[in-house]
What does this fold into?
Amino acid sequence: MPRSARAQERPERLALPFAPKGLSRLEAARYVGVSTTTFDEMVRERLMPRPKLVGTRVLWDRAQIDLFFEALPEREASQESDEEILERLG
It folds into this structure.
């Protein structure tokens, strides 16, 4: 079987019964909900953590991503308070 056919049969990453600790660049960007370009920009601007090197793999620590994400600024506040919005929504 040609190499390209074998590569197509192989899944990119095996399904795990748990969330992986280390995420690739693409996985980290998807986890945050942005494109890889935006994720790279966020790393450069220190809005996301720098990656770790595991052998030859470049991986982002999911727990660190969570911490950085929590520290991101919230959307500009509206005239309504959070309590007013929740009350209006029922």
